[in-house]
Amino acid sequence: MDEAHYKLAQNNLTKTEAFTEAVHQKIRHNPTLKGRLEAAIKAGKVEALKAISNHPLFNISAETIKGWLEP
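The structure assignment produced for this chain is given below.
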């Protein structure tokens, strides 16, 4: 990689890191947003496992686990 490409890559990495930090700050200072994101991630995990397994018995177990995880 030549020097120009290296500098461009470093600059993009810096912008990505700044954006990531801004998102983290927003989440830390907004408990409602944090709760909604956590719920969405949990739901996505269960749905992903269902899609991967594609087995009716697992779907029953997945719903049981989902019910236990939700307060």
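Interim note for the steering committee: DSSP finds three helices and no strands in the chain. The longest helix spans residues 3-28.
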